[in-house]
Write a structure and sequence with these properties.
This protein is largely without helices or strands and 64 residues long. Helix content is 0%, strand content 11%. It is built from no helices and 2 strands. The protein has a two-stranded antiparallel ribbon.
Length: 64
């Protein structure tokens, strides 16, 4: 998670608090030795805990 859209300065202290409507800057990487691959991030959500199935979740990307 980065502080700006320049993707240079990462957050180092967590949790990071953001307000509804505020932009967040995330980086996604595909680790593979294969060539010619592309990636489409369809869904992304955040939870207030490390449990990805936490009943409290906040949609960041839906139906990419």
């Amino acid at each position: 998670m980065f502080q700006t859209d320049k993707y240079i300065s990462k957050y180092t202290q967590f949790p990071v608090k953001v307000h509804i409507g505020e932009s967040v800057y995330l980086q996604v990487r595909l680790k593979s030795n294969a060539t010619g691959l592309s990636m489409l991030l369809e869904n992304c959500w955040a939870t207030p805990t490390q449990n990805v199935n936490d009943s409290s979740s906040y949609t960041l990307i839906k139906d990419g």
